[in-house]
Automatic annotation (TrEMBL):
The lineage of its organism: Bacteria, Pseudomonadati, Pseudomonadota, Gammaproteobacteria, Alteromonadales. SMART domains: HTH_XRE (SM00530). It comes from Paraferrimonas sedimenticola. Pfam families: HTH_3 (PF01381). Residues 15-57 form the HTH cro/C1-type domain. GO terms for molecular function: DNA binding. This is HTH cro/C1-type domain-containing protein. InterPro entries: Cro/C1-type_HTH, Lambda_DNA-bd_dom_sf.
């Protein structure tokens, strides 16, 4: 499996966990961050990779801790490319 596929899955799972812990439905989260609930489902299933802006709004809406934010950022393909350089 390519590295980016693993990263996408890990990020999707982490974002899903943030939403669930904050007790937000996919529909409510979508309303709060200004995207469709279908896009939320696609992100959480790993079908779509959200932009940095969407992730930032997701963190804000779910009141993610700094520790959670840092751990998710470390999963991003960009962070891993920097580590490999």
């Amino acid at each position: 499996m390519p590295k980016t596929a693993v990263d996408k899955t890990s990020i999707a799972q982490a974002l899903n966990e943030l939403r669930v812990k904050s007790k937000l439905s996919q529909e409510k989260l979508a309303q709060q961050i200004g995207i469709s609930d279908r896009y939320v489902r696609n992100i959480e299933s790993g079908k779509s990779m959200p932009s940095f802006d969407i992730v930032r709004r997701w963190f804000f809406a779910t009141k993610a801790s700094k520790k959670a934010i840092y751990s998710i950022i470390q999963l991003s393909p960009e962070a891993q490319q920097r580590e490999e350089a």
